[in-house]
UniProtKB/TrEMBL annotation:
<dbReference type="InterPro" id="IPR006463">
    <property type="entry name" value="MiaB_methiolase"/>
</dbReference>
<dbReference type="Pfam" id="PF04055">
    <property type="entry name" value="Radical_SAM"/>
</dbReference>
<dbReference type="InterPro" id="IPR023404">
    <property type="entry name" value="rSAM_horseshoe"/>
</dbReference>
<dbReference type="InterPro" id="IPR020612">
    <property type="entry name" value="Methylthiotransferase_CS"/>
</dbReference>
<keyword id="KW-0408">Iron</keyword>
<feature type="domain" description="TRAM">
    <location>
        <begin position="379"/>
        <end position="441"/>
    </location>
</feature>
<comment type="subunit">
    <text>Monomer.</text>
</comment>
<dbReference type="GO" id="GO:0051539">
    <property type="term" value="F:4 iron, 4 sulfur cluster binding"/>
</dbReference>
<keyword id="KW-0963">Cytoplasm</keyword>
<keyword id="KW-0411">Iron-sulfur</keyword>
<dbReference type="Pfam" id="PF00919">
    <property type="entry name" value="UPF0004"/>
</dbReference>
<keyword id="KW-0819">tRNA processing</keyword>
<dbReference type="InterPro" id="IPR005839">
    <property type="entry name" value="Methylthiotransferase"/>
</dbReference>
<dbReference type="GO" id="GO:0005829">
    <property type="term" value="C:cytosol"/>
</dbReference>
<feature type="binding site">
    <location>
        <position position="158"/>
    </location>
    <ligand>
        <name>[4Fe-4S] cluster 2</name>
    </ligand>
</feature>
<feature type="domain" description="Radical SAM core">
    <location>
        <begin position="144"/>
        <end position="376"/>
    </location>
</feature>
<comment type="similarity">
    <text>Belongs to the methylthiotransferase family. MiaB subfamily.</text>
</comment>
Amino acid sequence: MHTKNIYIKTWGCQMNEYDSSMIVTLLQKKNKYLFTKSAENADILILNTCSIREKAQEKVFHQLGRWKKLKNNNPQVIIAVGGCVATQEGKEIFKRANYVDIIFGTQTLHRLPNMISEVEKKRKLSIDISFPKLEKFKYSLEPKKKGYTADISIMEGCNKYCSFCVVPYTRGNEISRPCDDVLFEISILAKQGVREINLLGQNVNAYQGPTFNGKICYFSELIRLVAEIDGIDRIRFTTSNPLEFTDDIIEVYQDTPKLASFLHLPVQSGSNKILNLMKRSYTIEDYQSIVKKLIIARPNIQISSDFIVGFPGESEIDFQQTMSFIKNINFDMSFSFIYSNRPGTPASQMEDYLDIKEKKRRLYLLQNLINIQTMLWSRKMFGSVQSILVEGVSDKNIMHLYGRTENNRIVTFEGSPKMIGEFVDVKIEKIHTHSLKGKLF
Ligand code: SAH
Ligand code: F3S
C-alpha cells in the first residue's frame, strides 16, 4: 500500500494540543499514514487552529496562504483545517481559501480519517463542524505515554459565556467525560511510568462526571480518586474558574499532598466594574476569599492567573485596581493579554475607545509587575530543597538533568540518567527568573 505523509501544525491551548495528539493516534492506526516533520514533502497538511484572539485567527489564513503554494506545485495535496477557527468560521474558510479540502470541528476530529478517504476519492470539499457530544473520546485508543507527565482531558466546552470569549461557541457547552473513563486512562498511563497528571478542561472545577453506578463524581472527588492511583505522585489541573471553586475543592488541598501547591486561577481584572462587564459573575472579594481559604488549607500555595488589559470601558482607575490586586494576591507567573475584539461575542458590541498605545502601556506595566513578583517568588526558593520530577537530559549540557518543581519552575542539576522519570530532592543554588539550578540533596 502506498503510504502518505502527513504534516500537522497546532496552535492554541493545551486542549488543542490534546486534540492534535488524538488526531495523530487515530491516523497512525490506519497503517497508510506516516507523520513527517516537514510540510514540503507532505501529502496531507493539517492545521489545528485557535481563535481566542484576532492575531491567532489571522495566523491561520497566513499559514494557509503558504500551503497554497505547495498545493500549486502538487495538486494532489490535501489541506485540512480544524479546531476553533474552523468551528467558528465553517464554510467561510473555504470562501477565503478555496483550495482547502477539509474543514473539521473541535468535536468532530475523530471523523477526519473518513473525511480524508472521501476527499481522496471524490476531490470535493468535506465539512463537518457539528457538536456530537463526547463522541471523539469513544475513538481515542489506548493512551500511550509521551513523557513522565501526561495531560488528560476530563471535560469539554464552557457554559460561562464571558462577554469577551469565543470558547463557548467554538467548543460547545460544558460536558464531562465519565469518571471511570478518566481513571482508566490514567491507570494505563501510570502502568507505563507516568508520574504526574494534568487534568485538562476549560473549567475543570465544574466537572460532573457520570459514574458506572449512575452517580455523579464531582471535581474534588475526582482528584482524590486520581491520587489513589499507584504511581501517580503529582496532580495538577488547568484551567479552573473562580466560579464554582467550592470549599470541597479547597479541602482537597488540605488532605491530598499529591495535589501540587500551585494553582492557575484566571481573574482577568482587579476591578469589579470590569468583571461585571466581562460577565465573570464573581467579585474580587469572592476571589480574595477563595485565596484566603486556600492559604489556610495549604500555606505554601502559589497562585498564577490570566489578565486582560484594555477591556472596553477600562479606565485608569480600573487598571490601577488590577495592579493593586496583583500586589495584594502576590500572583506568580501569569499570562496577560490585550483585549481582542471577537466577532459574535457580546463585548464586540461595546464601545472600545482606548487607543492601542495606551493598551500597550498598560500591558507593559502589568507584565513588568508580574515579572518582578515571579523573580521574588523564585528568590524565596534559594537554599530550599525541592521535589523535582526528572523529565530528561538538559539540552544545554548533557551532564545535567532537568525537571519541574511543584511551582512549575524548571530546575537543572547534575545527576544520573537513571533518575529520569523519578522524583528527586534538589537543593536550589542559583536563581534565574524562569529557571533554577540546583544540587542533588
Ligand atoms: N476558562 C478560562 C479561560 C480560558 S481562555 C477562565 O475561566 O478564565 C484563556 C485566556 O485567554 C483567558 O483567561 C483570557 O485571559 C484570554 N482571552 C480569552 N478571550 C480573550 C479576548 N477576547 N481577548 C484577550 N484575551 C482573551
Ligand atoms: Fe471563556 Fe469565560 Fe469560559 S473566559 S472559556 S467563557 S469561563
